[in-house]
Amino acid sequence: MTNPVPIPQTDPRAGYLELKPEIDAAIAAVLSSGQYILGSVVERFERDFAAHLGAAQGIGCASGTDAIELALRACGIGERDLVFTVSHTAVATVAAIERAGATPVLVDIEPDGFAMDPNALEAALRDPPSGRPAAILPVHLYGEPADLAAIVEIARVHGLRLIEDCAQAHGARYGGRPAGSFGDFACFSFYPTKNLGALGDAGIVTTSDASLAQAAREIREYGWRERYVSDRIGINTRLDPIQAAVLAAKLPQLRADNSRRQQIAARYDEGLVGLSMRLPPRRAGASHVFHQYVIRGKDRDRLREHLQGAAIGTGIHYPLPVHLHPAYNGRVHLAPAELRNSERVAGDILSLPIYPQLSTTGVDRVIAETRRFHQ
Ligand SMILES: Cc1ncc(COP(=O)(O)O)c(C=O)c1O
Fold first, then answer.
1. Pocket test for ligand 1, best of 10, 61, 65, 294 (most atoms within 8 A of CB)
2. SS3 category, 20
3. 59 and 213 in contact (C-beta within 8 Å)?
4. Region class of 126: left (phi > 0), else alpha (psi between -120 and 50), else beta
């Protein structure tokens, strides 16, 4: 018997190969232009990406982590400020809050979902640790918007900034509007495996507030308003024009890529129904763009091994909530003191293969092997 063709959990190279002529030409144009820092290619991509979201402005930066730091700094958030976010996220969300000088407060996720629980958030705001509550930073994890109606209202009532971590949610929608259009800022990562991925590190913040946009633009480049004159303290986190050119070549395909991810998710839903595991929840009124398709089951580790044996890659996003990482454990504020839902999901989640170029035959093989495991 011949070995089955491996199915990776994600495949950014396939995304490159699909648009190779366009991407190669876009990179070559930057190389010949001599403009290797910011410039018109970056500006055009910033405009196009912001327009895609219905935001007034985009400020490109070097990564999704930097995007969060930049948004917080542009809001004037730093020392002694509390930023409420979740523990069930990429460590980058929490790392960026600390890099901005602020204090993260980690709240639990919904009992039957993967995103910030508005009830837990309210409870945390009733009894915050010492410091000034300054911002809420929900994460639209796996491509599904958080409960924005409730979170937007909580931010309004408490007079807090709302910064959306959209690193996994390019093109997701909530109540008919793009995820990322609800907060003061939306922060995106273009890490290669994301729904819109560069060929290296890259990120962007979007906002429709002109003065916040101006602040972010200045802080991105040493606090310069005018070249060589720092009006405020800044950092260097510019979007590389080569990555901007790659992203500009891929942006027109984002909608089709997201539709393909949704088709794959629907096929998994249909094919995996009735097994002793939970399929991904769908929030009413939201459009999930399936950065990840995440199932939950007690036998997660054995299923993972079984799929590995059938040359099918899987992932765990993420094996540890942030508050249990050695660098954060016992040091970071939790509200409440135990994040039971966050800890529970870390033990039973499994991300199945999903990327736009994954064939239907491949999806069916994943379904068949998962069903075989449950027989
Ligand atoms: C939810 C979330 N937030 C933030 C980030 C940070 O993005 P980057 O890796 O581009 O710094 C990522 C990606 O890793 C992410 O998934």
1. 65
2. helix
3. yes
4. alpha
Classified as helix, coil or strand, 236 is strand
pLDDT at 251 over 70: yes
Start-to-end Cα distance in the chain: 23
Q: What's the pLDDT at 1?
A: 59
Query: Is the separation of the CB atoms in 60 and 238 below 8 Å?
Result: yes
Pocket of ligand 1, candidates 137, 140, 189, 289: which has the most ligand atoms within 8 Å of its Cβ, to mutate? 189
Q: Residue 107: which residues within 8 A CB-CB, separation 6 or more?
A: 84, 85, 86, 87, 116, 117, 120, 121, 123, 124, 335, 339
What would the pLDDT profile of 196-205 be if each residue is shown by its tens digit? 999 999 999 9
Q: How far away, in angstroms, is 239 Cα from ligand 1 center?
A: 15
The reply to whether the predicted model has a pTM over 0.90 is yes
Which long-range contacts does 77-83 make (Cβ < 8 Å, 24+ apart)? 77/102, 77/134, 77/135, 77/161, 78/102, 80/131, 80/132, 81/131, 81/132, 81/133, 81/134, 81/135, 82/128, 82/129, 82/131, 82/132, 82/133, 82/134, 82/333, 83/134, 83/135, 83/136, 83/137, 83/163
Residues contacting ligand 1 via CB (< 6 Å): 63-65, 89-90, 92-93, 139, 165, 167-168, 189, 191, 201, 203
